[in-house]
Each structure stands twice: as C-alpha cells, then as structure tokens.
Amino acid sequence: MIIQTPNFPPVPCPCEICERPAEFQPLGNKAEISCRTCGKYEIEVGTRIPDDLRPYLSAATRQANERDRTLAITRENLAEIAEAHLRTSMGERLNKILALIAARVKHPGGSPVTLNSAQDYPLADAYNRDEFQCYLNHLREQELVTGEAVTNEYGVIARYVPTMKGWQHCEPTRSPGGEPGRCFIASWLDDQVDEPYNNGVDPAVRECGYTPVWMKNVPENKGMTDRIISEVRRAEFIVADLTGQRPNVYFEAGLARGLGREVIWCCRADNVDGPDGLHFDIRHLGHVVWHDSAELRMKLADSIRANIVRKS
Ligand SMILES: [Zn+2]
Q: Which domains does the chain show, CATH number per domain?
C-alpha cells in the first residue's frame, strides 16, 4: 500500500509578520505563509515576533522575494534578518524605490509600474504606508519619477516611470580615482573561501554592474605586493571579507580607505563573535554578516547598491 503525504490546500490565516490576511500551508515544524505585503516566507512554528521588528521583517521577506528567494525565519535569526532593514538611511530608502521602479520599467519608454502604498511599503524598508507615500511624493517632487497617482482610503496607488533624470540617478556613481566598474576583493586566499567567492561575492558584484578582481584569479606570483597595491589603486571600491582574520585583508582595506575608496566589509557569522572575533572598531561599520554563499550574495548586492550607487 502506498501512503501518500496529504497535500493540504493553503488555508486563510493572519500573516505572522504583518498580521494582515494571508494564506498558511503547514511544512513539518514550519509554515509557509503567502502575504500580499510580506510576500512568501517560511517561519518556524511558535516564533514570536516583537512588534517593533515587524515592518523590517516584512521588508526582508518581501525584498528577498523580489530576488526569487524565500526566507526561512526562526527565533534565532529574526533579529539579524530585520537588522539589515532597520537602519537604512532615508537616502537609501528613496534609492530603493527608484531602483525598483527602474528595474520593473526596464528601460526609458517602458510601461509604468504600479505601486500600492498599503502593500508595497516593505520594498523601501518603510515603517508603514505613510512613510512610503512620503518617499513616492518626494521622488515625484524631485522630478525623478513621473506618472499618475490615485489616493483612496487604503493609500496611494501610483503608476510611475523614471524621468531621464531618474534614469541617470540610478546609474552608479563614479567615485574619484580608480577605474569605473572595477571592484577589488580583499579576502583570505584559502581554498575554503572558493565556494563563497564563486557563489556569493562574484555574482553579487557582477549583478551590480562591476567587475570583481580577486588575487586568487590573477595568474601571477612575482611581485605580488606591488600587483596588489596597483589593483587596489585601480579599483573604484573594494569588498573586504574578514573571514579567517588575515592581516593582508586589513592591509588592503586600510590602503583603499587611505586612497579614498569605499570599503564594504563582510565576515562569515562564526568569525564575528567570541574572543577571536572581529576587532572592535570594525564592528561599528555595518558590515555584511553571512552564513552561506546565498546570503552573502544577497546582502552584499544590497550593500553595494546602498553604499556605492549614487546617494541623493
Ligand atoms: Zn504580511
């Protein structure tokens, strides 16, 4: 006799994050929730979400969906997941909406994107629809977007496209010095970082429109230090991964800072805490903490867009 696992249809239930109507599907000790505001996510049964983190978890799950990822929320990881969306600056939030509109419209002359403030506020790390509406209004007042907007009791429904000024605003900043589009990767050169480099760092840098330069892929041994210095000089910005705590990474990042380049810090989670963890003064710079290459790829791409792309 073949025993088939019952395939439960989704049932209506309040969203675990935003508490609006959603659909629930049991998955062992987890549930899969589909919500118009938070998107689709998995959550461990019995996870209690603090009220002040709700909007920022909505931001994390919804923005992950935009990148074809489904987040799995547990008691242990929810604070860290929310954290990445809690402290974004107003400039970053405006840029997120403008970048989203540009990504969906695809090219100048493309069809307008419809945004519904009551459902789409997590896309901009906004606390609620009112904050999101302020950003939409500002983008329009600054003539970065154009189109129609209708206000009703549920909020604003906008059909917008970027203006040419908006499209130009979405282009990466050319910071002084360095060759536009080059990104130097400072990291441990041990074999155990090959996988996170190949599946995390490399695709994240490329999807943001930059070319990564990693010394492990540079076929040259002679005069390596000179080559490193010249590559850091040529880079527009650098990504420094502190996993393994290698002195060369601190040296290359310090050199880059001295040359006025932005540095995006990354570190594998198990290297952050404990007596051998990160040096104290680095802990304040908002670095990318990652558990696996998929998370590294998503968080690093977010950080590049937030820190390297032109700020308003
Ligand atoms: Zn929700």
A: 13-86 (no CATH), 90-170 (1.10.10), 182-307 (3.40.50.450)
Q: pLDDT tens for residues 132-182?
A: 999 999 999 999 999 999 988 888 899 999 999 999 888 755 445 677 789
Mean pLDDT of the chain: 86
Q: How far apart are the CA of 38 and the centre of ligand 1, in A? A: 4
Q: How far is the CA of 17 from the centre of ligand 1 (A)?
A: 5
How far apart are the CA of 276 and the centre of ligand 1, in A? 39
Measure Cα distances from 184 to 230, 256, 263 in Å: 10, 9, 10
**What is d(CA 184, CA 187) in angstroms, rounded to the nearest whole number?**
10
**How crowded is residue 295: how many other Cβ atoms within 10 Å of its Cβ?**
21
Ligand 1: centre distance to CA 13 (Å): 10
Distance 244 CA to ligand 1 centre (A): 38
Answer yes or no: are the C-beta atoms of 40 and 65 closer than 8 Å. yes
Per-residue DSSP letter, 14: E
Cα 286 to ligand 1 centroid, rounded to whole Å = 27
pTM for the whole structure = 0.59
113-116 vs 155-162, strand pairing mode: antiparallel
- Say how many C-beta atoms besides its own lie within 10 A of residue 243's C-beta: 21
Question: Is residue 285 pLDDT above 80, yes or no?
Answer: no
Burial class (CB in 10 A: 0-12, 13-18, 19+), 153: exposed
In the block, tokens 């990767």 appear at: 185
